[in-house]
């Protein structure tokens, strides 16, 4: 597996979105980088990321910007396009009907197709 090359996203400051024991998530412009927990099994992570990238899930799951790579400290990192999150302070503002429709579309994808 390649090490993560220096990447640049045009514009925007670097913002820490989450820093927990299981992940560190930062945003730079329209790119989000997630450093997964130390010891994350990279092969299993690659399978999950591959499902999100699979054309059968297009329009249902947010596709990654490539597969998992390794940081110099050995942690796996994945890159994703930024999407506007729902405010934790306003869960009622979530688009629940649209989320239900996406869930139905996800369940319609045959697992054998992935």
Automatic annotation (TrEMBL):
Top-level taxonomic group: Bacteria
Protein's recorded name: Aminoglycoside phosphotransferase
Source organism per UniProt: Streptomyces sparsogenes DSM 40356
